[in-house]
Amino acid sequence: MNEKGLRPDVNSLDVLISLADLYVENGLMDEAKELLKTAIKENKDEIKPYSILGKIYISQGEEKEAFEILKSAMEINPENKEIRKLLESLGLEEEVVTKEKKKTTKHELGDSLNEVLKNLLKIKGIVGVLVVDDIGALIEANIELPMERESTGAIISSIYDKIRFSSDDLELGIISKVFFELPGGNIIVLGSETLRFIVLTTRNVLIGELEDVLTGAFRKTIELLGVE
Amino acid sequence: MGKIVSIDGVLSCYLVDKEGEIVGQVGNDKLDKSLVSAVIAAITKELSTQMDIADNFSITVMAKKKTLFVVTQKNFILAVFTDPDIDTGKIRFELRRSVKAISEEL
Question: I need a labelling partner for B21 at 20 to 30 A (CA). Which of A107, A126, A182, B32 fits?
Fold first, then answer.
């Protein structure tokens, strides 16, 4: 509606989509496409116009255009099932998803565990990374601080396990990450059945900004070690 | 505590003393309150002992079904259970305010 609430706002997303649907029903594909482009321009974060436009391109055999528009949608919401299905129909879903996953890591991780840890230490605020197994035994570590690696890994792992074993009592479900904010700095633990990926940071670091890169590094570590 | 629980996505809030006794609880969950308070106190005690830190630390546990925020102060522990997809920044901000208010009251 416009500011007086009397007439529909001709640029509102719902109106544009309804009109585009009408054009499609009546075979006016070029008009529908133009309208959907406008809808995307006005509502960049809304997936719906991307998916409809993608479908039109696919129906007209314009695969390149379909791919471009669906790829843009994937950048907005990589988990959208409809977009994934449409990309799948083009045989390109896997490629785009892989690219998106790579993008989320933002930083080069390296091809060996040592490189992964070394590269994480290049990120401002990260002062140490330890990888330990499920009983707290050290697998690999790279720490800038003067601390004992084996015992640090074992202590943090035991606290993480205490939380993990309490998960049923607290009805938390499977634990993915634990953040400890301590007076001397932060500890982030990403865990799987067999691994604990422990990251030590300075106190002032923004944990949210590190989440993607740490998740990427953890996945890479699992892959490199060939464990679950 | 009532203010925290009024935030969309917050399930319940527990105020626990260092011995694991429940001091207050707000929100509707089906958890065993005594068990929750004992477990929370045991976790914070474990960290406190192992790391040699008396208080003023917090733990955030991100899990599939819920996220758990725990803040420890000298005389109490505040624990908040939320939906897993909650805005953690917003909750942490509210937690800091609540911890300050509870500290003053106690």
Answer: A182
State CA A142 to chain mean position distance: 25
Give the other-Cβ count within 10 Å of A203's Cβ.
11
Note down pLDDT in tens along chain B; length 106 residues.
777 888 888 999 999 998 889 988 988 788 888 999 999 999 999 999 988 888 889 999 999 999 999 999 988 999 999 999 888 877 888 888 888 888 887 7
Cα-Cα-Cα-Cα torsion A155, A157, A162, A164, nearest 10 degrees, comes to 170
Q: Which residues of A touch B89 (CB under 8 A)?
A: 208
A172 touches chain B (CB under 8 A): yes
**How many structural domains is chain B composed of?**
1
Q: Does A175 touch chain B (CB under 8 A)?
A: yes
> What tokens does B25 get?
């609880």
Which of A155, A176, A208 has the CB atom closest to B63's CB atom? Answer: A176
pTM higher than 0.90: no
Cα gap A196→A199, rounded to integer Å: 10
ipTM confidence score: 0.91
Q: Domain span at residue B90?
A: 2-105
